[in-house]
Specification:
The protein has 273 residues and is an alpha/beta fold. The protein is globular. It has an 8-stranded mixed sheet, with helices on both faces. It has one domain: Alpha/Beta hydrolase fold, catalytic domain (Rossmann fold, 3-Layer(aba) Sandwich). α5 packs across α6.
Length: 273
Amino acid sequence: MTNPEVALSIPTGPFITNYHDLGSGDPVLLLHGSGPGVSAYANWRLTFGSLSPYFRVLAPDLAGFGFTEVPEDQVYDREIWLQQIVDLLDALGIEKTHVVGNSFGGSMALALAIAHPSRVDKLVCMGAVGVPFEITPGLDAVWGYEPSEELMGRLMRETFAYDPNLVTDELVHLRYLASIRPGVQEKFASMFPAPRQRWVDAMAHPETDLRAIPHPTLMIHGRDDLVIPPSTSLTLNQWIPDSQVHIFGRCGHWTQIEHADEFGRLVVGFLGG
C-alpha cells in the first residue's frame, strides 16, 4: 500500500526534501506545524483539495519532520529551516510565492517574508508562533511528547482539537505509528528539549522586523486554541501594517482541519484564487 505522505523528492542543500506538488497557477507554499509525527500531508491533506483547483500547491516536509532525508548528526534551528525553504524555491525555479504557515510553520513563513521579502507575495499565518508569549501547558506537552498511543490520543483530543469527536481511534493510531518510525522521535526530541520557553523565544521575531513586513497578511486562529494563544495573532495584527485577522469560534489549534471548508474558502478568497 502506497503511503500518501511520501510524494516527490528534490535535493535542497544537505537534505533530500519530500514535497507535494499539486495543481497549477500561482504557487502557494504550505509550511506545516511541529507536532509529533507530523508531515506536510498529515497537516494539509484536507487543504490540498481546496487550493489545488486555483493554485500550484507546494507542501514540503521540513528537515527533521516527515520523510525528508537529513544527515544523522543534523542540528535544527530556524536558519536551517529557512535555508531549506529558499533552496526548495530555487530548485523549483520559483521566484515568488504565496505562503501559508501553520503554528511553527507560521514563524517560518514570517521568517521568509522578513529575510527574503521579494520571494513572498501574500502571507497566511495560522495559530502562528512568531511573537513572544509564555509557553502554554499545551505546547509544552506537544513538544515534550514521549511515544505512547494513549498520550497521542490525549494530545489530539484534549489539546489540539476543540471537538474530540473529530479524532477517531484510527487517526490516533496512524499518528502514533508515524511518531515511532525509526529515527522520528530522536529527531523530534532533539529540536525542543526542556526547558522549552527558550524555543518559543527563539521562534519569535523582533517587533521592528514584523512592523516592516510589507506583504498583505491574514492571521487565522481558533478561539479555543490551547497550544498557541489567540493573543499571538492579535499582536501580529497590531504589528504587521497590511494585516487582518479571522478568529474561528469552537475551534482549537487545527483551523484547517476543524473548519476545513470555511478555511479553504477564506484562504482562496484572500489569495485571490
